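If you are new to this repository, start here. Below is one unmodified record pulled from the training split, so you can see the exact layout before writing a loader.
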Amino acid sequence: MEWNELLTKERQKQKERIINYNKNLNASYIKWIDDSDYPNREFDDDYMTIISSQAFRKLQDKTQVFLLDRSDFVRTRLTHSFEVSTIAKQIASFIFYELQQTRPEEYRKILEENPEFEHQVETIVACAGLLHDTGNPPYGHYGEEVIRFWFKNKFKDPSFTWKGKPIGSLLTEQMKADFEYFEGNAQGLRIMSKSRLKDKQDYDINLTYSVMNTLVKYPNPSHRFDKKSEDLKLHKNGYYYAEKDIMDEMCQATGTKLADGTYTRHPLVYIMEAADDIAYATADLEDSVMKTAFSIDVFIKFYQEEVDRIVEESFESLIKNYEEDHERIEKIRKYQDLRNKMAQERRIYGKNDQESQDRIAHMKSEREALFNDSEEDQIILEQINKITSEKNCASTPLWCLEKALQNHERSEEADFVLFENWLSECRNELIRVVAKTFVANYDAIMDGSFQYDLFKDSYRENSIKIMKKIMAHYVYDSAEIVDMELSAKRILEIKR
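And here is the target side for that same chain:
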């Protein structure tokens, strides 16, 4: 893929310049209205169009996590989208810096060919951040499930007919799958490509293909996706049968259509996706603590237990590689036991207890003596050090939070303010991480072969997984959310 195509300014319908000509106006005023002498900022036009569009404004009535919530603090889809847009723009800015540092000649050439490159990329991802949730139905992912369930049952109902024929028999495989696997991402593309004014001549949102393509996280039809694939972009469907022509036209224009006729992700999708994950992992945590779904102390306990679980699983995976070598397995388990005891000493006594420090020093010596200089032992030790490093990387944010709490007088209000500040620091760190991952995998992203998200194999990969998991554990299955989902279900059943 090439940036000159990826940043195309083509649209579904090219804009026509309208000059309010009046014979009584002088020539200078007419020239002021005709802004042809000004820089062509097509993507800025997209941003302004989105902000004033009906599709975007509708997000104010959709909640993010806590359905039907009355609190002014809790985020809606609208405020969440503004956050995603801002984070995406920040990620892009860090990527520019990383490219300058690691690929100076290549990046200089990009800027020479397109001096507006940085501004264009930042604006495109900011636009995508604003629009990424426009396809979500009322009640979010729960609403998607209700729609899917309804159509799956209706297609089996012999009374669900049109002109005496079962509707299911009149539809192609993909048409049926569009309903049975209804997906907010695909619905977003539908809205962006079909949203028009009342006269049905002009578009309410007539976006550039570059912005539209950055919204397509999953470039697959509804009957050809694979949730179990290692390739993340194959996990869901991203467009319906009704949008197959505009999908093809758009991907041809941006250069994301492959030789075999399939499509790949636009590189800027990875930035938008990461921004959404960061906003979700940090902002939703903030809302949950504010709503007392769980306390900060509960969060710390859960986080530490998850880190320990991840480390234990890594050690067990290592042990499986030496199933027949009982001596080495014993060494690994001994190393693991000493590591746990040392961590417990630090947790209980801290760094100021001399007796504890002496015990830790003794255990450290004992641990180091477990492996000799043989090649096999050094390979094992290298793998153990990798596990320990991953554990330390995952634990670092938690240590910072615990230290901050220890240095402040505890109260519910003070704890929450501190937690907000900690989440802000996490957000900034995650932004830097995904920028580095994007640049480290730049070639694979640009040729369409990159299969993962931008947290993959980063030193904060486990951190964001844990932050997401606590939401699933304490919030999504909580009594409050279940009660609100049942209310939503009753409302949707009445509507249909």
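Two things worth knowing about this chain: The CA atoms of residues 300 and 398 lie 7 Å apart. Confidence is low (pLDDT under 50) at residues 28-34.
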